[in-house]
Amino acid sequence: MILYDFNKKAWYHTLKHSSVLSFGKNEWPINPNRSLSSSKLLFSISANGNNVPLIGILASDSSRNKKGFLGNHFTFQRIQASLLKKGAMSIVFTPSRLYSDHVEGFMFHPTYKKWVIVKSPLPHIVYNRISSRQTEKKQIVQQTFERLQNMNIPYCNPSFLTKWETFQLLNKNAQIKQHLPLTKILSDLNHLSTFLAKHKKVYLKSNEGSKGEGVFLLCEEHDQYSIINSKGEVSSFQTIEQMLSHLQPIFKDSKFIIQEAISTSTVNGRRFDLRVLAHLGEDEHFIVSGIGVRVAGMHRITTHIPNGGSILPFDQVQDKINIPLLQSLIQEIGKELNHSNKTFFGEFSTDIGVSKDGNLYIFEINSKPMVFDEPSIKEQGLENLTKLLIMRANV
């Protein structure tokens, strides 16, 4: 057992011999148990060696509760429990709680079923789970990343990715390039008009959108024009000028990309795509932790569940998928993500479409994957993630 004494703000162990254990990057001592106060936090842990790996989980500060943090609390609990089973500890902390020689953060109290504040050494590695793009751009968060680099503390998943940034990165890879829909950054509306005239069906996507938000399907057919939004609502126009005028207001607040619409395979008349979760493994190759299938709702342009999509078991579409090709693409994507970064992407998910001729098309990369709904993928993803964090903590 490892114990934290809230009154002394110190760590102890219950081993019978008097050896001193340590944990964290700066090797704080975990002293033999002496007389402790009644106010303590207990962890059962099986550690190898004398230094216990400590994983930091970087979350967003809560504006409402100064003693809290933003993020998926249940997911952080699961990560902590999984790490403990593997001989490591974790602490959730926010940018305002990182100091020169320690962090003040949160650990889940298994007895009282709540998060409590503790003082710990600096972590060996940090898992970036800042909850939004807007928060990640704030000065205090960017300064936190700089401080971690100066402290020589690696952090996993350095940032959210934009759609255009991702396309530019992957388009440099000869193997990946043939699996990318033609994509352009939208510079002006005349550019959009030219692109639509050539491809007849194109997607208009917010460069920083997620979960199917900010996505429109634009169609030109028999000199008629239409826009379908993510809710399946259709707006029709007699001229291209009318359609462009209708779109004008949405361009005020964000950048957009335009992308050719790929005609993809269907199940029961509805299009589907793959959600592939991948993690970096021991041999520096990416492991496919799971493949989910999302089916679009009737008359919907995306497969995201909040927009009417649904889940389908993978075995119902498996015969349509070139698995060796899929695994090869995952490896190449991971290689490109980590090619020129001082930090590293340890995980990502990708949306992949399957064309009617069996080719695979990469629609989007997510550097901070949501937890999958499928229990098997959720568990395997957690297993591969915690193995990776411990492996990198021990480097």
Kindly describe this structure.
With 395 residues, the chain is of the alpha+beta class. The chain has three domains: 2-156, 3-Layer(aba) Sandwich (Rossmann fold), CATH 3.40.50; 163-179 and 264-393, 2-Layer Sandwich (D-amino Acid Aminotransferase, Chain A, domain 1); 183-260, no CATH class. It is 24% helix and 32% strand. The strands form six sheets. It has a six-stranded mixed β-sheet, with no helix packed on it. The protein has a six-stranded antiparallel β-sheet with strand order 15-20-16-17-18-19, sandwiched between helices. Strands 21, 22, 23, 24, 25 and 26 form a six-stranded antiparallel β-sheet that branches.
Total domain units: 3
Shape: elongated
CATH architecture of the largest domain: 3-Layer(aba) Sandwich
Strand arrangement, largest sheet? 5-1-2-4-3-6
Largest sheet: 6 strands, mixed
Helix content: 10-25%
* Structural class designation: alpha+beta
Low-confidence stretches: none
Query: What is the β-strand count?
Result: 26
Radius of gyration: 24 Å
